[in-house]
Amino acid sequence: MCTCPSGQIAPSCGSKSVQHCNIRCMNGGSCAEDQCLCQKGYTGNHCGQPVCESGCINGGRCVGPNRCACTYGFTGAQCERDYRTDHASLL
């Protein structure tokens, strides 16, 4: 393992391994030995899946690193508040 100039830890940082990659990485991920090394906040085979470290609840879904898209009626960083019944937030 080595630390690459980008700050990532990878099996190899040389351009030689990058030239032999047969896959494309998204969201700033880099390829080494036909595997994507994802930037913080993303995961998956091609770094296409955002990560919400605390998760999204009440039907919300993760649409960006630590960013939830809430279903109707819910709000908050993790979609934890039901604004239809949370009368304190209306004051």
Give an overview of the whole structure.
5% of the residues lie in helices and 27% in strands. It contains one helix and ten strands; from the N terminus they run ββαββββββββ. The protein has a two-stranded antiparallel ribbon with strand order 1-2. Strand 7 and strand 8 form a beta hairpin. Residues 48-80 form the EGF-like domain. One of its GO terms (cellular component) is extracellular region. Keywords: Disulfide bond, EGF-like domain, Glycoprotein, Secreted. It is found in: Secreted.
Q: What distinguishing features does this structure have?
A:
single chain, 91 residues, mainly beta, Laminin, 2 domains, 1 helix
Mean pLDDT: 85
The CATH superfamily label of the largest domain reads: Laminin
Structural class estimated from helices and strands: mainly beta
Shape: elongated
Total discrete domains: 2
CATH class of the largest domain: Mainly Beta
Please describe the topology of this protein.
Elements: E1 2-3, E2 9-10, H1 15-19, E3 30-32, E4 35-37, E5 42-43, E6 49-50, E7 61-64, E8 67-69, E9 74-75, E10 81-82
Antiparallel strand pairs: 1-2, 3-4, 5-6, 7-8, 9-10
